[in-house]
Amino acid sequence: MSIDLRKTSTEAVASRVKKTLATDFDSATEVRKRRSLGYATTRGTWVRIEVRALARVDGQGWGLETAAVLDGVAMPAWLQGVSWIDHDLGVMWRADETERVMDTPIRAGGTLKQNPDLPESWWATFRSSMQALAAHTMTRTATPHLHPLTQERVSATIHKLFPAVDTSLTEWRAAHADLAWANLTAPNCYFLDWEDWGMAPRGWDAANLWASSFSVPELAERVFEELRDELDSRTGKLAQLYHCAEILSYPPGYADELVPLARENADRLLSDLRA
To answer: Are residues 195 and 145 in the same domain?
Structure first.
C-alpha cells in the first residue's frame, strides 16, 4: 500500500513516537514530505519519521541508523530509533532521533535557480566528507528512490537513449545516493537524509550533484572541479551519462532548464567513452 504523508493524518503516529522516545515536538517546525515527517523536539534534537510499504523493507536496515558508523562525514549524529509494523496498512514505520542541525538546506525543493555563493570553508568540509565517505565499505546497496542501484538499473537507463554504450561498471564506492542541494546545508556544510546510502558506482554522488546544478552552470563547473578525480574515471563518466540520460528522459515541462547542459555533456561523454 502506498501512503502519501502530505495527504494522510499522522497524529496517532506522532503521538506514539513522542511517547516511545519520551519527548515532545514543536509543531511549528514540522517538515512534511511524501514519505517522511520531521520535527524539532523540546529537548533540542530532531526526529524524522518515515513510512515504507512492507515490500520495500529489504533487510538492509534503516539508513540513518546504519550511517552512524561513518567517520569523518559532516552529518547529524544519530541518537536512537524505533520501528514498528502496521499490519492493517501493510507498512512499517520508523522514527530516528538525531542531533538537530540549525543550518538550512541550500535548496529545500525543486531546481536550484541561483548560485548559493558558498564559502571556501564549506567546500573544504564538503571535499573532506566526500573523501571520508568513499573510503568506507559495507554490504549495504544504495537505493535511490527506494530501488536498489545495480548494474542492470544503470544499463537500462543509459541504453534507453544510448544503446551502443558499454555500461560495464568496474568500481563501486560508498555513496549518499541522494546527494542534491536539498540534502546539503549552509552556511555550514552538513549532509542530510541518509535513508538511501550504500554502495554505488564510483562518482555517483558527484555526478548527481553536478547534474542537479546544470541550471547554474558556474556551480556545476565548481562541483566538477572539486570532484574531478571521481568524475574523470570511466565509471564516473558512466555515472554522469546516467544522470544526463535521466534528465533527457524527463517529460516536457519538468526541469527544462537542465536539458541543454545534459544534452551537451551527454555528447561529450559518448565521445570520451568510445575513445
So the answer is: yes
